[in-house]
Amino acid sequence: MNEAREKMPALVDRYNRGVRYVRVSVTSRCNLRCVYCMREEHCDRTVVAEELDYQEICRIIEALAALGVRKVRFTGGEPLLRDDIVDLVRYAKAVDGIETVVLTTNGVLLGQYLDRFLEAGLDGINFSLDTFDEDRYKAITRRNLLADVLGNLESLLRHADMLQVKINVLLLRGINSGELGRFADLTRQWPVTVRFMELMPFDDHQIWRTGKFMGADKILEVLSDLYPALESTQGHATEHFSFHLPGSRGKIAIIPAFTRNFCSQCNRLRITSSGRIMSCLYAKNGVDILAALRDGADNEQLEALFQKALDMKPRDGREAGGKAPRTSMSEIGG
Ligand SMILES: Nc1nc2c(ncn2[C@@H]2O[C@H](COP(=O)(O)OP(=O)(O)OP(=O)(O)O)[C@@H](O)[C@H]2O)c(=O)[nH]1
Ligand SMILES: C[S@@+](CC[C@H](N)C(=O)[O-])C[C@H]1O[C@@H](n2cnc3c(N)ncnc32)[C@H](O)[C@@H]1O
Ligand code: SF4
Ligand code: SF4
After folding, report:
1. Which of 48-62, 68-82, 173-187 has the lowest mean pLDDT?
2. At 111, is the pLDDT very low, low, confident or very high (cuts 50, 70, 90)?
3. What range(s) does the Radical SAM core domain occupy (predicted)?
4. DSSP per residue over 93-106, as a string?
5. If pLDDT is split at 50, 70 and 90, which confidence band does 320 have?
6. By the 8 A CB rule, do 332 and 278 touch?
7. How many Å apart are CA 130 and CA 232, to the nearest integer?
8. DSSP tag of 17
9. Ligand 2 centroid to 37 CA: how many Å?
10. Residue 37 Cβ < 6 Å to ligand 3
């Protein structure tokens, strides 16, 4: 590998932040309807022609890897609804320069994929689960699939020494906040990171304005009360607060996605399922790459599009777009 290229990626924004990490939303379709993410009427009949296809996603990853990107996360919507998801993982792993390939999933379909993901070289899975209670699961996701999801979580935990496992728990005051201890206890037995996340206002105002928001300070207070022996440890990127319980195998973290600003270190670019390059989770406008790919753009033209998107990257996402944020995480992928 070219060392100069490693020191500074080719894609750099106006604030001198280089891009190392791309999050690709491979579909906006989903088999759940989480109340903090999408409405029941969310359309699942995405015209497939408007979704990036396999070749197009591969091309984007290759082009970005040549420009210094080292990590790929597949997300959505629900990425496991794409039947080429294992091939995408395998392909991304084989691209020169890409070191880490991970995905974020709701776990509903994980059982049928896990072995193939391991064989394809997937480095990690972020598994989103907010409750162990059946009625609550149904209330949050509007689907009755908890039994399947728990079965798949158990299989994943049993493989946690073969890939990095993180459990994303979105905490909602008065809904699942009482389950914090049950989730944290998973780290005693398993080498996983359990991450408690703040709600963000990307839910078409379904619950954002109903007082269910639970901030990082409150989460920290509850955790400290439950576990006086909690020890601070080094967290990763979005994990601003990170801890472990004495004698435990895993870690506990808090993602203060709303109340804290971790933008100064941001090394991310996002690709939406409909083929737009987004410079920030809060960005409203992106740059269309789908049309360019379908018009036969060469690598130089793609680089110009990535740079164009990056030139729009705000210093701070929340200040730039927080007042009227997007209506759902599903197209941009969280
Ligand atoms: N503000 C902000 N929040 C983010 C960003 N990326 C992820 N998040 C928050 O973190 C939550 C979990 O995202 P994941 O898909 O698990 O990814 P991640 O935490 O970035 O994972 P890593 O790749 O391990 O750093 C999202 O739902 C967001 O709330 C970001 O770039 N900016
Ligand atoms: C948009 S989902 C896509 C991947 C997959 N469907 C899943 O749920 O893991 C990615 C992450 O975004 C989180 N998310 C969705 N809506 C959110 C919101 N309004 N605030 C904070 N996080 C949100 C989910 O909990 C999930 O961990
Ligand atoms: S958070 Fe994930 S699982 Fe829930 S509706 Fe959004 S995309 Fe689907
Ligand atoms: S809010 Fe925007 S700039 Fe800040 S970390 Fe997230 S994506 Fe990066």
Report:
1. 48-62
2. very high
3. 14-229
4. HHSTT--EEEEEE-
5. low
6. yes
7. 23
8. P
9. 7
10. yes
Closest ligand 3 atom, residue 31 Cα:
8
Q: Whole-prediction pTM value? A: 0.95
Q: Which two tokens stand for residue 187?
A: 């780290």
Q: Is 272 in the pocket of ligand 2 (CB under 6 A)?
A: no
Provide the token pair at 284.
């409203």
Q: Is the minimum distance from the CB of 104 to ligand 1 under 6 angstroms?
A: yes
76 touches ligand 2 (CB under 6 Å): yes
- Taking each helix axis from N to C terminus, what angle separates 85-94 and 54-66, rounded to the nearest 10 degrees? 20
Question: CA–CA separation, 174 vs 183, rounded Å?
Answer: 16
HSE at residue 285, side-chain half, CA atoms within 13 A, is 5
Residue 36 Cβ inside 6 Å of ligand 2? The answer reads: yes
SS (H, E, C) 171-199: CECCCCHHHHHHHHHHHHHCCCEEEEECC
Distance 82 CA to ligand 3 centre (A): 14
Mean pLDDT score, 28-50: 83
Contacts of 174 (CB under 8 A, 6+ apart): 211, 212
Residue with tokens 């996605």: 257
Ligand nearest to the CA of 44: 3
Q: What is the CATH number of domain 15-332?
A: 3.20.20.70
End-to-end CA distance of the chain: 31
Q: Is the CB of 200 under 6 A from ligand 2?
A: yes
Position 237 scores a pLDDT of 72
282 CB less than 6 Å from ligand 4? yes
Residue 176 Ramachandran class (φ > 0 left, ψ -120 to 50 alpha, else beta)? alpha
- Give the Cα separation of 33 and 118 in Å (integer): 28
Q: What are phi and psi of 124, to 5 degrees?
A: -170, 155
Strands 71-75 and 21-25, sheet pairing:
parallel
Domain ranges of the chain: 15-332
Atom number, ligand 1, closest to the C-alpha of residue 280: 31
